[in-house]
Amino acid sequence: MTATASLDTRLTAHSATALGVFRILTGLMFTMHGTMKLFGWPTGSPAALAAWPMWWAGVLEVILGVLVAIGWYARAAAFVASGMMAVAYFWMHFPAGFWPVVNGGETAVLYCFAFLLFVFHGPGALRVSRR
Questions:
Q1: Structural domain tally of the chain?
Q2: Residue 126, in any domain of the structure
Q3: Positive or negative torsion for Cα 13, 17, 22, 27
Q4: How far is CA 4 from the centre of its chain?
Q5: Does residue 57 form part of some domain?
Q6: Is 55 part of any domain?
Q7: 95 lies in which domain range?
Q8: Is the CB of residue 27 less than 8 Å from the CB of residue 115?
Q9: Mind listing the pLDDT tens digit for each residue in 14-44?
Q10: Does 96 reside within a domain?
């Protein structure tokens, strides 16, 4: 066995745990985007109660982020969150230009595709749900 094959085997054995850690981190960071919109925490000023679309986006970000982070209905939550980020990109960023690095939409695109990874690959290890 070559050194590369040996390394691949060892790393593959830990891929479910790495995916789970990535899912937790992504969910917590997404939740924090929601807490910034709802409560102004850890920074920023909160959106006005029921203000469209920021306050409602914050509610969804908190709920979906927590579900993804703990791994409970993670695929369904990630599917909704991915769609939410696609809508956010095309609604808020795309009118300012095509490229995400130019129009400020990098975060929305990255979240969209990270959540798609969880939809298609599953939540990985370290989750509440056994499915």
A1: 1
A2: no
A3: positive
A4: 32
A5: yes
A6: yes
A7: 3-121
A8: no
A9: 999 999 999 999 999 999 999 999 999 999 9
A10: yes
